[in-house]
Amino acid sequence: MGKLINWLKSNKLTVVLIIAVGYLLWQQNYPGPIRPLSLNQQRFGGEMMTGAVLPKTGGGAANMMRSILPPDSEAPPTSGQDRLIIRETTLSMVVKDASKSLKTIQQKTESLGGYMVNSHLSKPEESANGTITVRVPEEKLTEALEAFRRAGLRVVDENVSGRDITDQYVDLEARLATLNKTKAKFEEILDKATQVQDLLNVQRELINLQSQIDSIKGQQQYLSQSAKLSKITVYLSTDEFSLPYSPADPWRPNVVFKLAVRSLVTNLRNIGSAIIWIGVYSPVWVPISLIAWFLTKKNKIKA
Q: Is 247 left (phi over 0), alpha (psi -120 to 50) or beta?
């Protein structure tokens, strides 16, 4: 008994840590309205993203810190009116002037309070085509789509999709609450620490916690902004067959005639290019051909 008391006196910080861990574990097991999720891999933004994971610091405090985190569980569903939805729309349009249509779409986006994400325009001799991706406020989505449709001759394909990110956002809130609670406990422990090594260990864990808290806040902001701003991608081309979709009636005489003309022009260009190459290399192949012809003729005379 005396050894135990002496050990407790010489390891005060360890005792305090054990008590704090036991208290937090009791709180996690106590039934409540929301059961926090683990820091495992989470999916949001269309990509698999790895959740915040405590770095290995090698200290006992780090191991106890990991034991504080709650086990896996499902985020509770919310009502329909409170759900966060990320909407993405794609349009494929035939236009008269791809460059002009791109400018029109960009100007309309900015007038609605949105912004352009990226834009691309290529002008091959056969047909001009381009792509533009913009983000507009969710409440202006319908108005933006109507304006974009008017920027082209006709819309040949349109797709609107939505992705529910509510559970991911709720999960992040639960994880953030758990990390903030754990951080507060470690701050209390830091105030009671007296040894330099203990101070360093606790401060290292606090830095790790703050890094995870900042990361989760950034993810929350990204999800929130993505739900507020709808993404619209518009594909533009003067030729319907250059758009990324499958036409309902792929055989059209006028289109076949246009493709045949392009093929003829392409083949004529290839023939012209071959003639040019032959002409440029004539100083090489002409002397060789003359020598070969002379030697062949000489052999025939001897024969």
A: beta
pTM: 0.53
Tallying the residues shown for the chain, one arrives at 303
pLDDT digits (tens, 9 = 90+) for 184-193: 998 888 888 8
Same domain for 165 and 284? Answer: no
Q: What is the pLDDT of residues 200-247, one digit of tens each?
A: 888 899 999 999 999 999 999 999 888 899 999 999 988 777 777 655
Q: Are 185 and 210 contained in the same domain?
A: yes
**What angle (nearest 5°) sits at the alpha carbon of residue 202, between those of residues 200 and 206?**
115
Same domain, 152 and 94: yes
Assigned token pair, 161: 């999709």
Which string of b and e fits 214-252 if b means at least 16 CB within 10 Å?
eebeebbeebeebbebbbbbbbbbbbbebbeeeeeeeee
Give dist(CA 248, CA 93) in Å, integer: 15
Residue from 50, 24, 37, 40 nearest 175 by CA = 37
Same domain for 2 and 19, yes or no, is yes
- Six-digit token pair at 187? 């701050």
- Do residues 26 and 115 both lie within one domain? yes
Directed axis angle between helix 60-68 and helix 12-29, to 10°?
Answer: 10
